[in-house]
């Protein structure tokens, strides 16, 4: 397998600083990316266990609206919106925090592959309306949840910042 990619101007190495054919540089890549990959893996396991637990507690009968998956995805999108503001605007986070929480926990918790599979399962003559309703409602609600979370988190942070400034001034 080549570590090169085609570009409009020709072929360039993906990472010119690391040659994977050199054992010492393979270890350098593992050291620099190992912590992030570990954080994503551990976070993903935690998020998937949370999703599994919720799905077990709130099972979906066959050919009905999958409420558990809907709530998981909308809540996960809301939390992703909160996280984005916290780690990019409120505080500079450790480099492993965003991969652990965002890609790992929330990526493992949300389940858009199950969403797609649920839609496929509902595409039957007697439940096609439910399928399209689920498709549209999840998409709209997930996007709105992210937008609300972004705005709400920014607003709460701004109020907290203003209070802090007033306390310092007093």
What does this structure look like?
The chain is about 75% helix and about 5% strand. It is flat, with a radius of gyration of 22 Å. The termini are far apart. Strands 1-2 form a two-stranded antiparallel sheet. The protein has about 170 residues and is mainly alpha-helical. β1 and β2 form a beta hairpin. α2 packs antiparallel against α3. The model is unreliable at about 1-5 (pLDDT under 50). It contains five helices and two strands.
DSSP helix count? 5
Distance separating the two termini: 64 Å
> Outline, from the CA principal axes?
flat
Work out the strand percent: under 5%
Order of helices and strands: EEHHHHH
**Into which percent range does the helicity of residues fall?**
over 70%
Report the sheet with the most strands, covering strand number, pairing sense and barrel closure: 2 strands, antiparallel
Give the tally of β-strands. 2
Q: Low-confidence parts, pLDDT < 50 over ≥5 residues?
A: 1-7
* Strands in their spatial order, largest beta sheet: 1-2
Radius of gyration: 22 Å
Task: Supply the helix-strand structural class.
Answer: mainly alpha
Question: What's the rounded overall pLDDT mean?
Answer: 88
């Amino acid at each position: 397998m080549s570590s090169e990619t085609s570009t409009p101007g020709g072929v360039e190495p993906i990472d010119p600083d690391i040659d994977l054919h050199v054992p010492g540089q393979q270890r350098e890549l593992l050291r620099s990316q190992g912590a992030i990959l570990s954080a994503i893996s551990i976070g993903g396991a935690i998020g998937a266990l949370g999703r599994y637990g919720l799905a077990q507690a709130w099972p979906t009968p066959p050919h009905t609206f999958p409420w558990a998956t809907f709530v998981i995805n909308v809540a996960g999108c809301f939390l992703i919106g909160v996280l984005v503001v916290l780690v990019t605007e409120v505080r500079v986070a450790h480099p492993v925090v965003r991969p652990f929480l965002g890609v790992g926990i929330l990526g493992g918790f949300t389940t858009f592959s199950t969403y797609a599979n649920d839609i496929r399962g509902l595409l039957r003559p007697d439940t096609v309306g439910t399928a399209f309703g689920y498709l549209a409602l999840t998409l709209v609600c997930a996007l709105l949840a992210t937008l609300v979370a972004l705005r709400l988190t920014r607003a709460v942070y701004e109020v907290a910042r203003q209070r802090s400034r007033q306390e310092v001034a007093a």
